[in-house]
Amino acid sequence: MKLLILCPQWGMEHLPIEDFLIRVKEGGYDGIDTWVPEDPTERKRFIRLLNEYQLKIVSHQHQAKGGNIDSFCSSLEYYLNLSLECDPLLINSHSGRDYFSLADQLRVIDTVEEFSIKNNITIAHETHRGRIGFSPYNAWDLFQLRPQMKITADFSHWTCVTESYLENSAEIIEEAIRRTKHIHARIGYTQGPQIPDPRLAAWEEPVSFFLSLWKRIINYQKINKAEFFTMTTEFGPPPYMWTRAEDNNPIASQWDINVFMKDLLRKTFT
After folding, report:
1. Which of 1, 152, 204, 216 is buried deepest, with most CB atoms within 10 A?
2. What does the buried/exposed string (b/e) look like for 164-194 if buried means 16 or more CB atoms within 10 Å of the residue's CB?
3. Domain 2-269 adopts which CATH fold?
């Protein structure tokens, strides 16, 4: 199985797209994890540059909106179509909202699954605060009702939401591992979705916990003879990253931390 490690554009949106792609390529990444530009001219150039620099992509749907479930699902389909234009390895979806009724959450999952089958593309619902995968317990209810549901494992949100290292969610974690198609490799802890710096010994406990979770996912993929598997080094900028009290500047370099994570993932899992 080939492990593909991707760089997020999140936090580097200020860079011109070609400069960003050059930095990613020179940084030793296999590709990027980002959204597709809505402007047709920008989108065409974006896709051309991806091909020119021979970078893979997991495209990202996070923009869907609507005042009711019908309009939301219509918007969702629009952004999934947009995400598909760059020939992604898969689509990562920020799906629905945490306040949606169960029926509306299932409608979102069904909309995604129908699109996935029709277009022969894997779509994974990110386990993210504010979305339908916001907690392991809500996800468990959805797993029971929708056996085809696939996820992007960003368990940093689950450790934050539950204020735990998921000690009470063993069965849910086992099921989540089986459904995982992509990993956002950010390390959270019991009081937040991102530790300040995984290079520091003080944060060894959450680093070890997350590496062990990711190892179980990767081993499952290997056992099931997956051709490839994708991970994104998704340590983010402020306000995810801690800042100094005196000037509100970030306490570390987001780029340096993500490069450290890329090298750690390669060392650990390949």
Report:
1. 152
2. ebbeebeebbebbbebbbbbbbbbbbeeebb
3. TIM Barrel (3.20.20)
